Known about the structure:
Layout: H1 2-13, H2 18-26, E1 31-33, E2 36-38, H3 42-57, H4 59-80, H5 86-137, E3 144-145, E4 159-162, E5 169-172, E6 189-198, H6 213-232, E7 242-244, E8 256-262, E9 269-279, H7 281-290, H8 292-302
Parallel strand pairs: 6-9
Antiparallel strand pairs: 1-2, 3-4, 4-5, 5-6, 7-8, 8-9
Amino acid sequence: MACVLLLSISIGWDLPWWPCFVTLNAVPHSNQRDGNRVTDNWCTSLVRALLWFRIRIGLGLYVAIAIGFILYSIYRIAIDGYTNSRLFVGIGGLLMLYGYSSVAEEMKEKEGMTDEIDEKLAQDWYDKKTSLMVDILGQEHDMVMHAIIPYAIGGGLDLYYFPNGITGTAIATKELCELPGQGSTNDVFETYELVMFTRQTISLDDAKDESTPFGRIHKSINAILNHIAPYSAQATLNPHETCEFPAEMATVGGKCLIFDAYGFDGEHTEFGLLLIIEIHRSEMDYAREHGGEELLEKLKQAGHYPYSDMDRPAVV
């Protein structure tokens, strides 16, 4: 298409096409041909004028004017024939050629800027979210349990450890809301991440060893988080509600859970932690009959809140 437009320009002025090509790609630099220096010829001056015009009126209006020249050229050709319409064909072709290259360049720049903005926004939100989590859970451990396949493309969650708050270890997610205002939400938090607790002291060397106390509870917490996380993207999970896994499910089958807003001060906030506690079936039945808040209070009184370790007696 570009070659056809350039050809129309050269025919329009009975001049060779190469000065336009050189000028379009190297304004305002000069070039050499047959030992003759090409400087400010007619094409250079025209493109400089187009550049000045293009910068000041904006791309949209510029392209509209270019299309106008083309349409008027067609009209003139229909009325007067091609011979008397060479000027309009040439100017229209040059305008469209430059306009097309400008569109492509601006779209590329805009996409690049958007990617950079999104990346910076995500990093700023991650840093802010982490800071809020540290305020609630205590200093974060310097090791992360990364999934082989990223959660965003259907893999598992990365697990983050907070062993410096209350006794034991908090295990949390950071992939449910990767941008502010986007992700899992409920009636209390605009966005949230999940957290579970064990009384066991962190021992990542034992995380895959089910013969150890930390390995057993880690496997259970990991499985629960990886099932609840995608579910939270579809359903609204509110504090004091309960959840039960079907008995036929591997690892988590038959497990009973209750949710709570951990570290919540009573006001709706843009980000928070949704606590998951594994409970006995009798406790879940009690929560369904008397309310989740009643059960959570009994767990606190018995000293079992917020832990998911099941080597304890039921409170009801």
